[in-house]
Structures are given as C-alpha cells and as structure tokens.
Amino acid sequence: MNTKKPPIPVPLLMLTGIVAISFSAIFIKWSSAPASVQGMYRLLFTSLLMVPFVRPYSGAASALSLKDWLLLTASGCMLALHFLLWMGSLEYTSVASSTMIMALEPVFIMIGSYILYKERSAAAAIAGLGVAIAGVVLIGWGDIGLSSDNLKGDLLSIFGTVAVAVHLLIGKKLVVRMPSYLYSLFVFIIAAAVFALYNLAAGIAFFDYPPGEWGIFTLLAIVPTVFGHILFNWLLQYTSATTVSMNILGEPVGACILAYLLLGERLSGQQWFGGVLVLGGLAFYLYMGARSAAREARRRDSREQEARTLPENAS
Predict the structure, then answer these.
(1) CA 19 to CA 258: how far, in whole Å?
(2) Domain ranges of the chain
(3) Contact (Cβ atoms closer than 8 angstroms) between residue 262 and residue 26
(4) Is the CB of residue 96 less than 8 Å from the CB of residue 245?
(5) Segment 85-111, tens digit of pLDDT
(6) Per residue in 112-156, pLDDT tens?
C-alpha cells in the first residue's frame, strides 16, 4: 500500500467526495433521458473540462504500453457498464435501495484486492465494514423486492456494483504507473465512446432533449464526477482501493437525506438508524486504517534507520 500523504487530509477529501457523489442519484431521478444518454454526456462533459489541463501529462501518455492501453480500455468499459446498470436501476427502485446495494462494493473490492494485490485488512477494520454494511441493509430493507420492478432495479444495481469494483481494481494497478489525472481522462473518454456506440446501435437519440436535460447532464459531470469519481481515483495514490471504496458506504446516507429533502422519499426510523450505523462503521474503518498505516510507516522508518546505521557500524 502507498503511504504517501496528500496535500489535504484524506478524511476531508473523502467527505467532499461523499457529499458530491450523493447528488448523483438525485440528478438521475430528475432526468427523463435514457440512462445511456445521461452516462454518455456526463462522461463527455467531464472529459471536455479536463482536456485543457492535460498538457503536463503528455510525456506520460506517450510512455504508455500496449498493455496499459488494454487495461485502460477494460477499465473504461467497466465504468460505462456500471453507469448503464446503476443509473438504469433508479428507473425501477428507490434511491435508498439502489445506493444501499451499490454500497456493498467494498466486499467485492476487498476480495479482489486480496486475490490480485495481496492486500489484507485488519480484523477490527473488517468489523467496522460489517457494521457499516449492516447499516446500509437497514436503509434499504424497507422496499427491496416489493415488486418485480423493485427486484429488477435491485439486480441492475448489484451487477453495476460488480462492474465498478472491477473498474477500481484495474485503476489501482494503473495509477502506480501513470498520473491519476491522465488515467481518469482516458477512462472517461473510453467510457463515453462505449456509450456512444451503444446509443448508436440502439437507435437512441443523441440531441433531441430540452434545455433542462442538458443542465442535468452538466451537473452530473461537475458534481458527482469531478468532485466524486475523479477525486476517488486521485486518492488511489495515497490509500488502498478498499479504503477508497468505503466512501461508497457514505453515499446511501447522503443520497437518502437528499432524496427526502428534494424528492419527497420518506425514510423510516429504521432507515435513519441505518444511516447512523453507516457513518459509525465508516469512521471506525478509516480510524483503524489510519492506525495501520501509521504502524507500517513507523516500521518502514525503523528499517531505513537500521539500514543507515549498519554501514557506520561496519566502518
């Protein structure tokens, strides 16, 4: 795991990303455009915002190997699949249910990180994850599977969660070899192209949408994508993929509060209690992760100190 420190404390950056990404479901619910169109313009507009700042990374782009480009393509396809499935799920089920299921992402990330990168999590940290997931279950328990539409939305969200977990695991491998900004830009462009091909093949209109829809496409690009996904990709340089994915556990809480205020979706006492458990479990996980990173840093410093003193003693 990388133990570099970012210029801004990780918990503050994570909170910013959680708030931003919580607006995603609200904007999607407000839109009547197909999910594939929302996803295409969300990623296209984000890419256009990023392109003017890509020049410092031109050298890194030219150094990418064929294997890197294949991994970028795979990551972009998984991101497009995630948006298509998860955004589509909101047409059939509530914000609480869909975001609750997507919050199970750390389970897939933890398994994948262990298999691919041999990353281990402390038992106490896993306990925090369990508490947070229990809270997420309470949030969405009230309306999961109440009808065939609810069930369809739940299944779409599950498969979308698997897709974004694969996307994050590929990203963890790539950001150690290339700037996270460049990684995000290329992945967004590839995912937008995948959506364009999908819409073209399905005969879905590209431009026949009212001004309000274009405003929503723009908000989706700026708020949850720039201040959510890009920020989380950038954080992969400083912490594990499992820790980054834990941020998703905060999304159901923020999304449910916003859905209550902006969409009139009512929450039961059980769901509010679940939100408290999510935040508590997330805070405990991050605390234990920080303690583990601090111990690892001290051990590394001790080994480096011993390595420096050995030549001195030998002389």
Answers:
(1) 10
(2) 10-314
(3) yes
(4) no
(5) 999 988 888 887 788 778 777 777 777
(6) 777 776 777 667 777 877 887 787 777 767 666 566 677 788 788
